[in-house]
Amino acid sequence: MNVTGTTLVIGATGTTGSRTAARLIAAGRRVKAASRRATPLPGADPVRFDWYDPDSHGPALAGTDRLYLVPPVGDPDPAAVMLPFLRQARAAGVRRAVLLSSSAIPEGGPAVGRVHRALPGLFPEWAVLRPSWFMQNFTGAHAHADSIRDDGAILTAAGTGRVGFVDADDIAAVAVHALTDDRAPNTDLVLTGPQALAHDDIAAVLTDVTGRPVVHHHLPHDAMVERLAEAIPRDFALLLAGMDRAIAEGAEDRTTDTVRRLTGRPPSDFRTVAERELPVRRA
Fold it and tell me: Given this model, what pLDDT does residue 282 score?
């Protein structure tokens, strides 16, 4: 593992960015932790960064040679702001870029799929992480976690479709390898947990771990769009509800060996993550 270089971690206060930054720092790497408020992070150099403020881009890039890229949240066309920044980064001397995408979005697909397609032409060293849905969606800061806490319910249009939910800690572990190994992956990496679960299975595990009943409500696609559109732009709501429909049709019913292959250890299962991150039922 190469020990030189400085990594700009965009979204350093987020679910995968915070974990990636912490692992880089623990490994003795130099990190610039980018967030809209330049939030201090022990062991890192905090810098202000806003995708929609080009004046913040140059100072954030100064002195870096690699990037961890978390797209702007909720933007149905992130390429519009990301591609100009990435061209600026390449001109500034960045050689390696690791992009967080999604297992549901292929190269050239909608949203961040356009950035995925452009990345190999911009940087000689690159990787695209395509994780399945995060296990932390049910334990952290997410609409599912909110509805679980507030109402004991998970609402989706995914039906009985199964997903290889993945631990954000495992995503971060792969990200660090992709950023720091002597040879960059130069490919996309589909990341999953060890088993594919339906949302009904998730609800059952949460009920068992916490002792509080959790149920999965199966919504029609159109009802899911309307629910999501109350909080996010309608175009993005349509995209997310479409992903639920794809899950119902079996698109995410798979597991991969990527986490084990790159990190040397198996990925965490959902029960382990729930017990680690939620109040556990007392015997």
Answer: 64
From 229, 268, 210, select the one nearest 74 (Cα to Cα).
Answer: 229
Pair 144, 189: CB distance under 8 Å: no
- Measured CA to CA in angstroms, residue 95 lies from 17, 51, 68 at distances of 19, 20, 12
Task: Give the integer Cα–Cα distance in Å for 6 and 150.
Answer: 41
pLDDT for position 208: 96
**pLDDT (mean) for 170-196:** 98
Dihedral-angle region of residue 250 (phi above 0 means left; psi in -120 to 50 means alpha; beta otherwise): left
Residue for token digits 């088993």? Answer: 195
- Positive or negative, the CA dihedral 119, 96, 188, 29 is negative
Q: Specify burial of residue 265 (Cβ count, 10 A radius: 0-12, 13-18, 19+).
A: exposed
Does the pTM of the predicted model rise above 0.85? yes
Residue 158 phi/psi, 5-degree rounding, is -90, -5
Neighbours of 200 (CB within 10 A): 15
pLDDT tens track for 96-123: 999 999 999 999 998 999 999 999 999 9
Residues 6 or more apart from 186 whose CB is under 8 A from it? Answer: 120, 125, 126, 127
Residue 3's alpha-carbon distances to 124, 182, 186, 193, in angstroms, are: 19, 9, 19, 29
SS3 221: helix
Instruction: Sort 246 into a burial class: Cβ within 10 Å, 0-12 / 13-18 / 19+.
Output: middle
